[in-house]
Automatic annotation (TrEMBL):
Gene3D superfamilies: Aldolase class I, Exo-inulinase, domain 1, Glycosidases. This is Galactocerebrosidase. It is found in: Lysosome. Its EC number is 3.2.1.46. The gene is Galc. Its main location: other. Transmembrane segments: none annotated. Residues 1-23 form the signal peptide. The active site is at E186, E262.
Length: 669
């Protein structure tokens, strides 16, 4: 014993991390990894969400090679995050956090499986990893589903038909097999609807599609599954959101797979990485969850929208090509590069004596992967739920490999240390392999570290070229929407916040306005958030102060139709109803208004413009300092309107209500 203490005091450790002379005696503990008495639960994979909503909006218009590099960091096996699961929003035309995503059926008699960008993203993910699992989940639904009610379950057969058509369309038009489907994100579930969804899936030969419920809390779904044997039969996975690494007794009693089907949602700095490292392990250690899915995949939306930069990496500048591979990507790699869905957790307690946790997984073919995290409390707080205090101290962990692992002689070692204040982080570095002597090895662990110890030799950290430097959004920007076969249904950089703005071909136009951008949602959708009563799409730089916005506009709705252009727009996402700015409206009845808000309550100026419906007009908004003026067809219409707030914001276009309207030759300076 005296010799042992001597070794410890001298800081001579058996692990990769040297301890420094004169260090205090370490907490020491032993942990046994054994498969002889059976294994734990089957591992289902680590994933991320695109959508909920419009979180990948700006990714699609990155130029190559940068767009492919970003996709490689997310999906390419043994490269970066190497994700096992991609979960996407089934667009429903409504606001679902950072924007709206278009539905494949805006109206009852309408079907189009090429809208939005989730189809493209799923194909890009599959291209890189054919084994990636795909999940679809709706946040909102087009209005016709509810036949006038803001509720998707009054006509469950209609809703089931709508969701199953999305799954069939994925296969028919994109050769994508959807593996799992959810019910309604973070809202009520209907047992009748879930049973009908299963019946409808089976009727269309989609027996292999599994059902996740209810993407909210553990209850009441777990309790209901225990009471309703028919429902128990059709739900395959209980998915909870932000469970704080804990589950509930009812959920365990169902014997179902338990997933954290949405988690993380934290700013992607080092604290975000600490949060992610902690929950990736502890969701299993504390809560028996065999899959954890991050919201969101990549922060590809304007940063000033809600939950800016809450993605595993950041790609919010398609105009410059700049992106940033954030620390959470490399934390993900610690698990994903050395495990696969279908591997099995070992039965271990998983708590480390000095704080932190470990999990161990095997493929059943002799491979073993151990992931250890020692995240401290203040460096691993997620956005929700609140994190009770705990302490983590430097410690020595000794692992004893038994059963079929006794013969393991060396383990590959991958290590991350989050530096925080010190700034000397090291992310996903390969260290010297660890020798295992007679089934045992020891490791010295400091706080805020992640170790992966594995028999696999396939791990990789790419030494890729640096992306271009960041640049602000161009200060002179034009789009005439003249594109015959656009790769996507939406114009680049426009971020729809209520309604959906799509490329449109005006077959009847004599020539100047054949190709336009059209607002196409004409009834308020079944909402998830508080969509505005007007439609609006944002673009540009939130820091803009002085600007001139010009656009050709075409009101389609007679009598009470109307459109606007705007500047200094200060809000979007789930807060879109409270958006303020400088809004220049023209209406089909020949009048105009200038308002300080999207809702149109704060009227700064009004009068007669002589605009009519079903004709093209050019409107211009000029904002300089505390003054604004407006032009109609190149002639001054109003001027010297005093602007007090907001002091800066985006540009925007939109409509008075859920109505058809067209926009062309958009220009901002």
């Amino acid at each position: 014993a005296a010799l042992l203490w001597g070794w410890l005091l001298l800081g001579c450790s058996w692990g990769p991390g040297p301890l420094g002379v004169g260090a205090a005696p370490l907490t020491t503990a032993s942990y046994v990894l054994d498969d002889a008495g059976g294994l734990g639960r089957q591992f289902d994979g680590i994933g991320a969400v695109s959508g909920g909503g419009a979180t990948s909006r700006l990714l699609v218009n990155y130029q190559e090679p940068y767009r492919s590099q970003i996709l490689d960091y997310l999906f390419k096996p043994n490269f970066g995050a190497s994700l096992h699961i991609l979960k996407v929003e089934i667009g429903g035309d409504g606001q679902s956090t950072d924007g709206t995503e278009p539905s494949h059926m805006h109206y009852e008699n309408d079907e189009n499986y090429f809208r939005g960008y989730e189809w493209w993203l799923m194909k890009e993910a599959k291209k890189r990893n054919p084994k990636i699992k795909l999940i679809g989940l709706p946040w909102t639904f087009p209005a016709w589903i509810g036949k006038g009610e803001n509720w998707p379950y009054d006509y469950p057969d209609v809703t089931a038909y709508y969701i199953v058509s999305w799954i069939l369309g994925a296969k028919q038009y994109h050769d994508l097999d959807i593996d799992y489907v959810g019910i309604w994100n973070e809202r009520a579930f209907s047992s009748k609807y879930i049973k009908l969804l299963r019946y409808t899936l089976d009727k269309h030969g989609l027996q292999q599609v599994r059902i996740i419920a209810s993407d909210r809390l553990w209850e009441p779904i777990s309790f209901v599954l225990l009471l309703d044997s028919e429902l128990h039969e059709v739900v395959d996975v209980i998915g909870a959101h932000y469970p704080g690494t804990k589950t509930v007794p009812d959920a365990l009693l169902t014997k179902k797979k338990l997933w954290s089907s949405e988690d993380y949602s934290t700013f992607n700095d080092e604290v975000g990485a600490g949060c992610w490292a902690r929950i990736l392990n502890q969701n299993y250690v504390n809560g028996n969850m065999t899959s954890t899915i991050a919201w969101n995949l990549v922060a590809s939306y304007y940063e000033e929208l809600p939950f800016g930069r809450c993605g595993l990496m950041t790609a919010q500048e398609p105009w410059s090509g700049h992106y940033k591979v954030e620390a959470p990507i490399w934390i993900t790699a610690h698990t994903t590069q050395f495990t696969q869905p279908g591997w099995t957790y070992l039965q271990v307690d998983g708590h480390l004596e000095g704080g932190g946790s470990f999990v161990a997984l095997t493929d059943g073919l002799g491979n073993l992967t151990i992931i250890i995290e020692t995240m401290s409390h203040n460096h691993s707080q997620c956005i929700r739920p609140p994190l009770p205090y705990f302490s983590v101290i430097p410690q020595r962990a000794t692992f004893h490999l038994k059963g079929s692992f006794y013969m393991v002689e060396t383990l590959q070692v991958w290590h991350s240390r989050l530096g925080f204040e010190s700034g000397n982080s090291s992310l996903f570095q390969q260290l010297h392999p660890l020798k295992v002597l007679k089934g045992s090895f020891s490791l010295d662990l400091n706080e805020d570290e992640v170790y992966t110890l594995t028999t696999l030799k396939t791990g990789q950290k790419c030494g890729c070229p640096e992306p271009p430097p960041p640049q602000p959004f161009p200060s002179n920007y034009k789009d005439d929407f003249n594109i015959r076969n656009p790769p996507f249904s939406e114009a680049p950089n426009f971020a729809d916040q209520t309604g959906v703005f799509e490329y449109f071909i005006n077959a009847s136009d004599p020539g100047d306005h054949v190709f336009t951008l059209r607002q196409v949602v004409v009834q308020r959708p079944i909402t998830w958030a508080s969509d505005a009563d007007q439609t609006i799409s944002l673009i540009g730089n939130f820091k803009w102060v002085n600007m001139t916005v010009t656009c050709d506009i075409y009101i389609e709705k007679q009598r009470d139709g109307g459109v606007f252009i705007a500047g200094r727009v200060d809000n979007g996402g789930i807060y879109v109803r409270r958006t303020t700015g400088v809004f220049f409206w023209v209406f089909a009845d020949g009048t105009y208004r200038v308002t300080g808000d999207l809702a149109g309550k704060e009227i700064l100026m009004k009068g007669v413009a002589g605009v009519r419906d079903n004709a093209w007009h050019t409107i211009t908004l000029n904002i300089q300092g505390t003054s604004a003026s407006g032009l109609l067809n190149g002639y001054p219409l109003w001027e010297n309107v005093t602007i007090s707030k907001p002091s800066n914001g985006w540009a925007a276009i939109g409509t008075r209500s859920f109505e058809f309207a067209q926009f062309d030759n958009f220009h901002i300076e």
